[in-house]
Amino acid sequence: MSSEIRQLQPQVLWNKFADLNAVPRASKKEARVIEFMKDFGMRLGLETIEDAVGNVIIKKPATKGMEHKATVVMQSHLDMVHQKNNDTDFDFDTQGIEMYVDGDWVRAKGTTLGADNGLGVATIMAILESTDIPHPAIEALFTIDEETGMTGAMGLEGGLLQGSILLNLDTEEDDEIGVGCAGGIDVTATRAYTEEDTPEFKIGYTITVRGLQGGHSGMQIHEGLGNANKIMNRLLFDGFENFGLRISEIDGGGLRNAIPRESKAVVAIDVAREDTFVSKMKSQAEVIKTELKVMEPDLDILVTKCDTPKSIMDLGVQEGFTRALYAAFNGVYRMSADIPGLVETSNNIAKVLVKEGEIKVACLTRSSVESAKTDLANTLRATFELTGCEVEFSGDYPGWTPNMDSAILKVMTALYQDLNGEKPHVAACHAGLECGILGQNYPDMDMISFGPNIKGAHSPDERAQISSVQKYWRFVLEILKHIPENS
């Protein structure tokens, strides 16, 4: 209930988060949240700008006595990942997020919460609306479409902002100060195939992979989480090798930046081999569940009879496609040689769609090293081209190179230690942040990323820690007090 959320501390932040979460805001469908943010800025009497691509900029003068401080750009993205459980009845286009308190955590009922990056947006809104929080001149930058291409950051023109320091509020560990991130590129393989009439001696079955945790395809790619598309292809491959299984349809995964949680395939098998097929597939399912039992305790694989599909995929295409998907790399490709524990390069096979004579496989390849990103993307390209697919690269965005001599980094490191009695973890991350892109048009801007604890982002298990939000809010207020003077 949003009334329960509105009573949490700090109330000014949670109230803004509740207001924001009442507005549908899927990536590439941000019209309503853009108007919401513009109305907010104009209602406060602040200079409010919508740029050519839909980013919103709200400018607030410094409070009394802070005029000599450097202007700060506070930045978060307006869009959120829309994901829900299959058994959740929810329309993201018309409904606001339904939140509730679970101990020290705020969750959503069967959907993503939108804490990524809604808590950052709410933080900036609270600062803009405040009358008693000391701060330098602020340029609030609310970007669009961060989750599916970063087109807002890419479209932001140079010269719109005068700030010399940027605080990106899109990190998900409250003891971390982010100083770098990976770049990314979308890899999409497509091909047409001929549909064949299903022979009369075949019957239909549905194979369903569900119950995986899913999660952020950058921040959690190293955790060993199951990928529904790879699991499904393993089952289909084995079914074809052993029982002549033929594919009619596949629908697995969703957004590129979410590790796929579910996949469903409609197949046809020989009626004479039905009992053996069902027995062996269930046995194989148990093998896979045993392999993943530690990380994916709720994995469920169902093999159920259905109406016989009218058509199936051309046999030659099916053989090549399932082999290509088996060979296509998924997960951590290389760890960083420069930063211990950091994933350097990875790929997420995010979406597999086979239907009505068309194949589409959507991947997101990430790396903090541009040449390695290109190398892995070309590896995927070659894999799919060998089976007759056309492969397109799109949405290429750069990484963010760490600057360990950053002035605001030194300020924030000292403040964090004073507030918490321990040093923060200064790190680059494997997620895609907008700092690298924004730095192309604002190369002299000193940038830092931080935020509260958010777990399970990009999945219906997303949750934000209440005590961590309180810790983070205190940190934000101290940072604003201690911004360096204009140089």
Automatic annotation (TrEMBL):
InterPro entries noted in UniProt: Peptidase_M20 (IPR002933), Peptidase_M20_dimer (IPR011650), Peptidase_M20C (IPR001160)
EC number in record: 3.4.13.18
GO cellular component, as recorded: cytosol
EC class name: hydrolase
Cofactor(s) annotated in UniProt: Zn(2+); Co(2+)
One of the record's GO molecular function terms: metallodipeptidase activity
GO biological process per UniProt: proteolysis
Keywords attached to this entry: Cobalt, Hydrolase, Metal-binding, Metalloprotease, Protease, Zinc
Signal peptide range in chain numbering: none
Reaction(s) this enzyme catalyzes, per UniProt: Hydrolysis of dipeptides, preferentially hydrophobic dipeptides including prolyl amino acids
Keyword Metal-binding: yes
Superkingdom of this protein's organism: Bacteria
Domain annotation Peptidase M20 dimerisation: ranges: 208-293
Family statement: Belongs to the peptidase M20C family.
Protein name, UniProt field: Cytosol non-specific dipeptidase
Species whose genome carries this gene: Snuella sedimenti
